Amino acid sequence: VAVVGAGVSGLAATKCCLDEGLEPTCFEQSQDIGGLWRYTEHIEAGRPSLYPSVISNTSKEMSAFSDFPYPEDFPVFLPNARLLDYLRRYAERFSLREHIKFGTTVVSIRKHPDFATTGQWNVVTEADGKQASHVFDAVMVCSGNFSEPSLPLHCFPGIEKFQGQYFHSRQYKHPDVFQGKRVLVVGTGNSGVDIAVEASRVAAKVTICTRQGAWLLSRVYDHGYPWDMVFNTRLMSLIRNNLPGPLSWRLVNYKMNQRLNHENYGLQPEKSCLVREPVTNDDLPSYILTGRITIKPGVKEFKANSVVFHNCPEEEPVDTVVFCTGYDVSFPFLEESVVKVENKHASLYKYVFPTNLQKHTLAVIGLIKPLGAIMPVTEMQARWVTRVFKEDLHSSSSQPCQHQCFSCLSLLSDLLRFGLSFDEVLKTDCLVYMDTLASFIGAKPSVLGLLCRDPWLALTIFFGPCSPYQYRLGGPGHWEGARQAILTQWDRILKPTRTRVPAGSSSSFPSLLIVVGFLLLLAAIIFGF
C-alpha cells in the first residue's frame, strides 16, 4: 500500500496497514513527520505552514489515537510542539519510521493497465532529483488540505488600488509585522481570530470583517471542563439527532448564546438555522469589550489607503490586510477523473472512497472537518479502509469489492458529497459518522450489551465523553487497555491542572452518573435508543 504523506493521517494509515498485515510504504516530501503540526520558521512549498503560537482546539483525551493515550502530564489543550512530540512517540511506539521514505515527492498516481482486474496503481516518485516508478496494490492519499492558500482577490473590488500590504494567513508567523499599524483581518475562521488577537497586542487598531458571522466557542466550557468532553457525548448526540430540525437549531442557538450574546458582539451567524463552523478562541470577547478588536461586515471596496464595508458609508483607514480565506483542495498527482474537485467539493463515498472506480483500492484520508478532533476520525477512516483493502486484495473475484458497506448500502442513494464548507459537512454528526465506520468493521461499542456485562463502563460511555478508546473495546484492533483508558480519562484531564491541591477523585461528573445514570439511560432507551 502506498501512503502519501506522513502527517496525522499518514501515520494513522501506516499503522493501520501494519495492523492488518499489509505492507505500507509512506512517501513524505519533507525530512520529518508531523505534517501541519511541525512548525518551521520558513514556509516550505507544498507543506502546511503554521505560526508558533498555535494550540489545539480539541482536548488531549478527545484527540488521542484510540490505542495510544497522551501522557497524563501533557496539558489539556496542546501547543503545537507538544502535539508533535506525541506524534513522534506514536511513530516510535509502533515502529512507523522504518516504513517512511523521507524527502520523496509523489509525482503521479495512475491506474495500472490491468486495473480493472487487479486494482493496482502505478506510482511515480521523485527523490534527490531522480524519479522512480512503483506498482502498488492500493493507495491511501493523506496529503491534507492546508497547503494551497485560497486568495480570491477578484472578490474584493479595488484591491489593485490598495497601496498597503496584504498577504494570506499562511504567510503569518509573528505579530511584530503589525507593530503600530492599522490591521484588517478578512475572515472569522480560527486562524483569522488567532491572528487578530495576536496583532491587537502590538497594532494601533485591529478590525475583523465577516460576511456571515460565526459561533464562538471557548476551550473552557461548562464548569471549567474542556468543551469537547462535555459537548461530544452519546447522550447529547442522541438528543441533537432526534429532535425536530427547527427545535435542534434553537437548542444550538441557545447553547451558543448562553456564554455571550453573539448579536451584541457582532458575531451572530447570518443564517443561524445552519450549524456553521465554530471559532475556538478564549480571548476574542474580552478583546472586543476592551476595544482592541472591532467586528465589521464584509468588504465592499478597497481604496488606496482604506476600505469600505457593506452597510457602512464611512471609509476605514488600513495599512495591512490579512486574508484568512482558507485553502483550496487539489490532488495534482491524481488524474481528475479519479477524484474530481469542483467548488471545493469532491464525490467521495463516506468522505473516503471515489465513487467511480471499478476497484476500491484508492482512498482519501482526512479530507473532512468534523466538529471535534480530526485524529480519531482519520484513524477510524484508515481502519475501515485497510479492512476494505485486505478483503479486496485477498479476493480472487474480478468484481469490485463486496465489503459489507458496499453491498448493504446503495452508492446512489447513500452518496455523501464532501464539502469543505462547514455548513454542509456538519450536517453529518461526528459521533454518528464514527459509529457508522466502526459498525462497518465491527468495532462500534454496544452500550446495551455492556450494560449487562459492565454497567459502570456502559454508563461512562453513554453519558461521558465519546473518547476514541471506545472503539477499541471489541472487534478488529481490540486493545486490552481500552476499558482502563476510558475509566481514567478524567484523571488525565485533571492531572496537569490540579497542581496546587492534592489530587482527589477524578471528577464530579462520574459521581453524577451514580445518581441519575440508570434513570436517564432508561429514558434514553424509551426515547429511541
What do these coordinates show?
The protein is α/β, with parallel strands linked by helices and 529 residues long. It contains 19 helices and 24 strands. It has a 5-stranded parallel sheet with strand order 3-2-1-7-23, with helices on one face. Helix 16 packs across helix 19 (508-528).
Could you write a compact summary of the structure shown?
The protein is of the alpha/beta class.
Terminal CA distance: 39 Å
CATH architecture of one domain: 3-Layer(bba) Sandwich
* Class by SSE composition: alpha/beta
The dominant shape is globular
Strand-residue proportion: 15-25%
The main pleated sheet reads as:
5 strands, parallel
Instruction: Give me the side-by-side strand order of the main sheet.
Output: 3-2-1-7-23
The stretches of 5 or more residues where confidence is low (pLDDT under 50) are 396-427, 510-515
Number of separate strands: 24
User: Which fold name is given in CATH as the topology of one domain?
Assistant: FAD/NAD(P)-binding domain
CATH superfamily of one domain: FAD/NAD(P)-binding domain
Instruction: Report the mean per-residue pLDDT as an integer.
Output: 88
Give the helix proportion (percent range).
Answer: 25-40%
Query: What is the CA-based Rg, rounded?
Result: 24 Å
Helix count from the secondary structure assignment: 19
What is the subunit organization of this protein? single chain
User: What is the CATH C level class of one domain, in words?
Assistant: Alpha Beta
Cofactor: FAD
Membrane topology: Single-pass membrane protein
Family: Belongs to the FMO family.
GO molecular function: flavin adenine dinucleotide binding; N,N-dimethylaniline monooxygenase activity; NADP binding; trimethylamine monooxygenase activity
